[in-house]
């Protein structure tokens, strides 16, 4: 019991233990400071982003020309599978958790996350999980090659790479559940006086709702991969038709997790954009209350639409129509959000620094992805487009131009507060325009490929698809190269950037901009008294101590 | 407190649009009322869609 | 107006509630198995293999005209099969059991596995040809040069529309690669 007691020590108790910054490797290994853990998450996510990106370039290199040039089909399938798994569970989700770790306590006036040592644990579970995925390339039979969805019966038949993948998913699931518990308890219990729920910053709202989604669906994913594991090794027949099971059952359970997962990767992005757009429009967020309600609406509806991923499994027309209409209804709250962002920019005195560029890019391209999503939701059309490149184009528009662009926007936006230095605005803008151009060169032709019938997850293709594939491959390599600009900009600015002001953005009005830059190592050791407006706007701050 | 207020709040959470003033009143709602309203509205939502669909697919 | 700051106890209570929620959702995933099972049974969604029925309403009412049946088989170029029906045509009254034999030869010098796919002309006739036994129900293995005879047993449904007086049943044989 004492071990649990000490693991659940509230943050300020441990903070009082040692005011000084710990140094050396121990600072990171035994990190309990939310800023250190946030940084760890972000660095981990970036390295996974590079790793997943290299896998993506391996895929695009093979697809540059028809025929087999570089990889055997088996290895190609491993690349597509691991690219998906690593980007979803290794890059996007940890990056959002990292940002929440860094920014939530600063935004709501908390001294740290609620359970500082559990926070350490939830981060340090991630590297072993990533290592398991990496190692799986080296085991007999190679890594999992069933696609990131790990559909049975493929996943029940593969080599031991699949076992490693299943364990990695278990570990990452535990990690994200613990991270989510921390976020929820922090937001619900540790807000500074005056920071009420309906005044809270949108990023806090989005993180809160996302955390609930994670707790609701990650255990379902853990459950279904456990069933795959028992089918593989313990003689059960959950998904084996010969033993009385049903492979379609896997898809139902998986997508019960899978669809909310889509919003786990999108809602925090909405939260970030809901800060950046008002800041650089110098206007309060339009329709804050509606934004909160729309976020919860998307979360509720996301549990009722899972079977739109399975229109071709032989569902009766009644079920197809049900899921089709329910899916289309999600466009309503999402549209509310897009209109609110546009309403925020309306008649604002806008300026276009890098975070704002990425946020506007996010709105434009996410809407394109949303629109192709509505197209896919139509059951009659989906039967034609299922498993084609149209689907690939759709989800890369919402995940790369959606989640990833919002992450870039967030990193540029909060970089001064995190490091005390400014990034290079020129290279930031260059990074944006470069990414925007090559992103579209890469993924827009995939719409045409999909409509023409090119299936996804194949290493070779018909001659007629050559031109668009070549285009996409060139775009992908240029896009990947552009991320090195981002990396170099960050590394250089970390050391040599111009010192940043406490409030580098004129229109920024949330709590994190009220404290010194860089943020003090132990911020808000004593909670401040706040007068707060909507979307976390600070009207007055009294007290509040930092070390 | 008018019991219909809980339904109004949950309905707005479905639709995604809510006035700031109304949301301030929503905060005084009891959690149990909200859950009950949510379950009833979800059932109505699913039932309504099913009705629409069965009407459309009727021979 | 402000509520008192949360204590360590409050935090732990919330932690336990959320952990409980995670556990409930894990159990829920396993609970979905019987739920889907019951749902499929109730709605009949899962039963893709339903027993077929042969229509018999018109049995006594009107005398049925015999239907002209033609049997055919094709092989895609490059595949090692030789297929021929031992009966080319016959006339059958709907409701009568019909048996015809097909002879399939593996003309290559290797082991092959074949799968026959039936085709009907006119295509609308498909639902009135009720096959009771057919070599197309399963994959068939052949030794090099082996010849096998297979029966097809079927009934023409008595509900066959009056205008449909000629049906062609054609088989195409495909290779099943990667198995031996």
From TrEMBL, chain A:
The keyword Transcription does not apply. Pathway: Energy metabolism; oxidative phosphorylation. Keywords: Cell membrane, Copper, Electron transport, Heme, Iron, Membrane, Metal-binding, Respiratory chain, Translocase, Transmembrane, Transmembrane helix, Transport. Its EC number is 7.1.1.9. Signal peptide: none annotated. Pfam families: COX1 (PF00115). Gene3D superfamilies: Cytochrome c oxidase-like, subunit I domain. The chain crosses the membrane at residues 40-62, 82-102, 123-146, 166-190, 202-229, 249-273, 285-307, 319-336, 357-381, 393-415, 427-448, 468-488. It catalyses: 4 Fe(II)-[cytochrome c] + O2 + 8 H(+)(in) = 4 Fe(III)-[cytochrome c] + 2 H2O + 4 H(+)(out). Coiled coil: none annotated. It is a multi-pass membrane protein. Cytochrome c oxidase is the component of the respiratory chain that catalyzes the reduction of oxygen to water. Subunits 1-3 form the functional core of the enzyme complex. CO I is the catalytic subunit of the enzyme. Electrons originating in cytochrome c are transferred via the copper A center of subunit 2 and heme A of subunit 1 to the bimetallic center formed by heme A3 and copper B. NCBIfam families: CtaD_CoxA. Belongs to the heme-copper respiratory oxidase family. This is Cytochrome c oxidase subunit 1. It comes from Vogesella margarita.
UniProtKB/TrEMBL annotation, chain B:
Keywords: Membrane, Transmembrane, Transmembrane helix. The chain crosses the membrane at residues 32-56. InterPro entries: DUF2970. The keyword Transmembrane applies. Pfam families: DUF2970. This is DUF2970 domain-containing protein. It comes from Vogesella margarita.
Automatic annotation (TrEMBL), chain C:
The keyword tRNA-binding does not apply. NCBIfam families: PRK05089.1. The lineage of its organism: Bacteria, Pseudomonadati, Pseudomonadota, Betaproteobacteria, Neisseriales. It comes from Vogesella margarita. It is found in: Cell inner membrane. Belongs to the COX11/CtaG family. InterPro entries: CtaG/Cox11_dom_sf, Cyt_c_oxidase_assmbl_CtaG. It comes from the Bacteria. This is Cytochrome c oxidase assembly protein CtaG. It is a single-pass type II membrane protein. Exerts its effect at some terminal stage of cytochrome c oxidase synthesis, probably by being involved in the insertion of the copper B into subunit I. The keyword Methyltransferase does not apply. Keywords: Copper, Membrane, Signal-anchor, Transmembrane, Transmembrane helix. Its main location: membrane.
